[in-house]
Structures are given as C-alpha cells and as structure tokens.
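Justification of computing resources. Each target in the renewal requires a structure prediction run like the one illustrated here; the chain below, 155 residues long, is used simply to show the kind of job we budget for.
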Amino acid sequence: MRYKLPNGQIIGINQPFTYEDTSYSANWTELATEEQKNALGITVIEEHQRPDDTFYVVTQNDDGSYNSTPKDLNGLKAHWTTYVQMIAHNTLAQTDWMVIRKVERSVDIPADTAAYRAAVLAECTRLVAAITACTDVPALATAVTTQNWPTGERA
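Resulting structure tokens:
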C-alpha cells in the first residue's frame, strides 16, 4: 500500500517521511489511525492490477495506475509458436526411441504411448492454429493461457 501527501509526496508502508517540518517514523503509517491520516490529508493510493509484461510494455503512474502498450503482435506470435513447438518437441523426445525402435526393428509402440504422442501433437497443432488466428494481443494472451498438454504415460 502506498500513500500520497497533500504536497504530492508518495510514501510507502514502513517508510519514514517528513511533512511540514515534522518527521514521522517508518511505522507511522501502520500505527496511525484513519483520523490521524485524514488530519494530515494523506490519501491511500489504490493499487491496480499490473498488466502482464509478457504481452505489454508497462509503465506505472504516480497514482498507482498503469499505462500499457501491446507488444508487437507478429513478434509475440512467432515467440509463442516456437515456444509451444519446443514443448511438443521436448515432450515427444522422451519417447522418440520407441518410434526409432519401431522403424528399425518393427517393435510396436505401446498403445498408451502412441495415444499420448498423438495427444501432444494434437495440442501443439491446436495451439499453433489458435496463435496464428489471433488478431490482437488480448486474443493471443487468451490463446496461450489455454494450453492443455496431455498428462499420462511419457515413457
């Protein structure tokens, strides 16, 4: 929590301050009553939810609010496409040996492993399509926060 003095000075909790030639201890804002704070003209600065720095360039204003500008959509789409493909690649790598064994020695891939691999590929395909279809940053943020990678047999 932060406070604003009538002279515009911003103070935080456990921060000593001087106002009108009077020094106040670091714990004054915690110990003072609402009446004491009101008598000095101190107002509470409402803290706002900070936009996600992953998707926005964010700056904070003195009043606790934020300005946010969406990052480049094409750059974000390229990043997230690569990211989900990397997740799929790393996940599938754990059972790639079974695919190689199937090709080289005709040893069947266990059904649960084959189903798991298919589910990983399907989720990757779904996410890449969702990312590609996004026309703005909020849609992209929603798309990439709905990842639903399969769980289960990995190797």
